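Dear colleagues,

I hope this message finds you well. In preparation for our joint manuscript, I am sending the AAA family ATPase (Croceicoccus marinus) sequence together with its predicted structure, so that both groups work from identical material. I would be grateful if you could confirm receipt.
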Amino acid sequence: MTGASAPLDYSSLLNVPDRQRSVQDVALPTVRVCDRIQPDATQAAIGLNALEEQYGAITGELPLGGWNGLRRNAHGRLRLIASLRNTAPWLYAATNIVERQLEVALHVGHPWLAFRPLLLVGAPGSGKSHFAMQMAEAAGVTFVQVPMGGDSDNRSLAGTARGWTGAQPALPVVAMVQHGTANPLIILDEIEKVSGERRNGNAHEALLSMLEPRTAGCWYDRCLMAAVDLRHVVWVATANSLHGIPPPLLSRFDVVNVPVPGPRDADALIESLRRDFCQRLGLLAGLQPRLDDSVVRLLRRHFHRSGSIRLLRREVEIAMGEAIRALPRVVH
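The corresponding structure tokens are as follows:
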């Protein structure tokens, strides 16, 4: 499997002016994650390879994303890190872990999103998934969110072997092809709730080989019948507790205990959730309504009582819906 194919000096990439931030304007570092997808014998006889046509992007050069979040702001801090400190200040421990690894990577000439697998452990509604999604947004990379609770086999991660009806490659491979990047961010929600059944493989066991750098570099995909390089995939897992996570798998993660956000975090959360809601609707910056101070105070009081980001998200969406309905209607 080939490594990064572009030169190591990417200083010009990180200094591209804001007006030239499109990926078409800069030479992104790229990698090839698979050398060749094996064709079916029957298809090969007539010169066809359906899997190559569908997933052949991984045999070419795929870009490594995240460079935009690794540019520095006016205060010299990585933009990704500054964004995380603003939108999830109670998760400073996780942000510090990510920052240290990104700074080291930049020092040796690797301007893309990359850090060791991260496991966020905390109470429901404490913002674990919120943190991961904010990271993807700030870095400018795509993410795939996978609910792991109740998984009774490994097919959601490892895919299915060729020969089965609807056979599909491993989830990281599908994410690479769909989003055109070699380092998608994969969020594994409630990883401790994976079923212990092993009839069709266990998701925890599949993760072991995907997270271990030595095996991830040549991970064998049974659908593609080829080795793929998963070393650049960015993994963030969440759990309500460590109970149910096997020690060998736990050892692959940097584990962070997530505190419940406090009253002082309310304003940052409300603004972050407001912006998320507007982005999902595709509202341009100039068309995004602000929340009245009286509404913000009410949301703040409710959050002080509940401490739940999930509940706050619903309340912010209701408030934003009312604010949008008060605007002049858009006529197409």
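For the figure legend, we might mention the following. The CA atoms of residues 287 and 329 lie 12 Å apart. The chain has two domains: 11-257, 263-325.

With kind regards,
E.M.
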